[in-house]
Automatic annotation (TrEMBL):
GO biological process: mitochondrial respiratory chain complex II assembly; succinate metabolic process
Keyword Transit peptide in record: yes
Keywords: Chaperone, Mitochondrion, Transit peptide
Family designation: Belongs to the complex I LYR family. SDHAF3 subfamily.
Domain of life: Eukaryota
Primary location class: mitochondrion
Function summary: Plays an essential role in the assembly of succinate dehydrogenase (SDH), an enzyme complex (also referred to as respiratory complex II) that is a component of both the tricarboxylic acid (TCA) cycle and the mitochondrial electron transport chain, and which couples the oxidation of succinate to fumarate with the reduction of ubiquinone (coenzyme Q) to ubiquinol. Promotes maturation of the iron-sulfur protein subunit of the SDH catalytic dimer, protecting it from the deleterious effects of oxidants. May act together with SDHAF1.
Annotated protein name in UniProt: Succinate dehydrogenase assembly factor 3
Pfam families: Complex1_LYR_2
Length: 68
C-alpha cells in the first residue's frame, strides 16, 4: 500500500507541474512554487489528511486540465 500511495503522489505532482507549462512564465513560477511547498508540507501528515489532500489536488488537476 505505501508504494502505491507514493506512486500516486508522484504521478499527481508531475501532472500538476506539467499542466502549469501552458501558463504565462510568471504564473507558472508562482504555481510551481506553491505546488512544491504544498506537497512538501503534506509529506508527513496522517492517512486521513493525506487522502483529503490527494482528492483535492486530483480535483484541481481535473479542473485545470478541462480549462486547457
Amino acid at each position: 500500500m505505501p508504494g502505491r500511495h507514493i506512486s500516486r503522489v508522484r504521478a499527481l505532482y508531475k501532472r500538476v507541474l506539467q499542466l502549469h507549462r501552458v501558463l504565462p512564465p510568471d504564473l507558472k513560477a508562482l504555481g510551481d512554487q506553491y505546488v512544491k511547498d504544498e506537497f512538501r508540507r503534506h509529506k508527513s501528515v496522517g492517512s486521513d489528511e493525506a487522502q483529503r489532500f490527494l482528492q483535492e489536488w486530483e480535483g484541481m488537476s481535473r479542473n485545470l486540465d478541462a480549462c486547457i
